[in-house]
Amino acid sequence: MRFSSRLKGVDESATFKYSRLAKERKMINLTIGRTGFDTPPIIKEATKKALDEGKVHYTPTKGIPELRKAIARKLVEENKIQNLDEEHVLVSVGAKHVIYEAVMSIIQRGDVVAISNPSWVSYESIARLSEGRTAWIPLKPENGFIPDDDFYAVLEDSKPRMILINSPNNPTGAVYPEKAIRKVVDIAERNESIILSDEIYERIIYEGKHFSAGSIYEDTITVNGFSKEFSMTGWRLAYAASQNKEIIEKMDIIQAQTVSCAVSFIQYGALKAFTEEARRDVMKMIAILKKRRDCLIDGMKKTRAVMEKPSGAFYVFPFFEGADDIELADKLMDEGVGVIPGSPFGSAGHGCLRMSYGDAEIEDLRKAVDILKGII
Ligand SMILES: Cc1ncc(COP(=O)(O)O)c(C=O)c1O
Fold first, then answer.
1. Residue of 200, 224, 229, 239 with the most ligand 1 atoms within 8 Å of its CB, for mutation
2. Does domain 41-274 have CATH number 3.40.50.720?
3. What is the pLDDT of residues 188-220, one digit of tens each?
4. Domain extents for the chain?
5. pTM (2 d.p.)
6. Ligand 1 near 33 CB (within 6 A)
7. Dist. CA 376 → ligand 1 center (Å)
8. pLDDT category of residue 24 using cuts at 50, 70 and 90
9. What is the architecture of the domain spanning 5-39+277-375?
10. Cβ neighbours for 46, distance < 8 A, ≥ 6 positions apart
């Protein structure tokens, strides 16, 4: 049967594939792109109430105004993105779909989409679906996968229509310093590029400070959501915001013609994500994640991994010189530890493993490192 050429080279997400295998075989599971915590009760209760109150119908395509207002307020006050109100915000069914809508509205055949190497697996697939050309911009393990001069030079040369940045980062856990983001913005300005800043791990930072490109560059689409911070991956809720309202209007056309709107009662529940109570639950989760990260880093020091301490998200991305990451991940699986090989994240991921501590207890992390030490 003939299928669209748009799908050429777009496969099942490697992260889902390895997660599925790890779950089927019941092992120490370091493959998962989420935490193992529950959603804060205050959000769950408000969602149930909305359902009971009959909030079961279509909402405006961009989302309910109350939620968009709360998001705009957060972005102005915390992220220092100016000139934003609810008209500059679009709520949708998960950050993945928001990114899809953004790329589909901007990119046409042949346009360059610059993504860092390594990158979260879906960026390249989404760029392919839009028929854009991917420019891989190199990052290095010895710099902790933080942009350096090579990165800026290749980015500038790529003449990108769109630049995708992601800090804190999946798969590396790196948190980009403000000066790195400013350099990316300089390049975007010179090339009249649109920046898509994926800030889904914004709150999960252990050292350093988050800086939003949208605070200094109008043609930025800031993407964030509820999946990671509030352990709501199954709820499917996220948002995009831009000072450039036209971009949001175009994304809204795709939204209206595809999913119509995000789930109604979930949007009402998410209003409670902006309360002190939800924030306290998140802070407790981050304290636990930090302990896990420290444990994993300590253990990895005893291996030959090349790795800087990652300051955010819940991933480590160690590099093992000369190792075949796929073989290594398969061997670890045979020994009862599920991880994701680095190469699906880009050629710079060769020899790397992505290990998630989002849903692993300290004891399991210790065991996993011992098994790794025995293999590598
Ligand atoms: C960097 C990054 N962006 C976006 C997403 C997608 O998040 P959502 O669950 O909101 O679609 C993920 C999920 O793994 C991610 O790691």
1. 200
2. no
3. 999 999 999 999 999 999 999 999 999 999 999
4. 5-39+277-375, 41-274
5. 0.97
6. yes
7. 30
8. confident
9. Alpha-Beta Complex (3.90)
10. 268, 269, 271, 272
